[in-house]
Amino acid sequence: MMRLLTNLPDHIVGVSASGQIDAKDYETVLIPAIDAALRKHKRIRVLYQLTTDFEGFTTGAMWDDAKLGLAHLLAWERIAVVTDVHWVANATRMFAFLLPGLVKVFSNEEQSDAEKWIAA
To answer: What domains appear along the chain, each with residue ranges and CATH number?
Structure first.
């Protein structure tokens, strides 16, 4: 399940993901939020939190994530990934250089630091 974080400025899309994330989560929550933010701003920031009860991504979700990233390649100003899932943190760090914006990984304990960094 994915839900929007509502306490952020409108140039920042924040989502919290728990349980199993599937393509429907991307298609009904994240993609519409990204599209709405991009109608107002040329570049946006994203805070993506995987909660402690995150279980994984379906293949469809991973495909939608890749398509979303590539479709808006120059739109990403900053991306904060908040997770305690080691493979997600490591993959994010490994591929961060492919994105034109800044990417930083935070633990779930550092959620407030991630919110400050993404808004700075």
So the answer is: 2-119 (3.30.750.24)
97-37-30-72 Cα dihedral, nearest 10 degrees: -40
For each of the chain's 120 residues, which pLDDT tens digit applies? Answer: 999 999 899 999 999 999 999 999 999 999 999 999 999 999 999 999 999 999 999 999 999 988 888 788 889 999 999 999 999 999 999 999 888 799 999 999 999 999 999 999
Sign of the alpha-carbon torsion through 66, 67, 73, 76: negative
Q: Is 5 left (phi over 0), alpha (psi -120 to 50) or beta?
A: beta
Q: How many of the other CB atoms lie within 10 Å of CB of 107? A: 12
Question: Torsions phi, psi of 72, nearest 5?
Answer: -125, 40
Taking the C-alpha atoms of residue 11 and residue 7, their distance in angstroms, rounded to an integer, is 12
pTM above 0.90, yes or no: yes
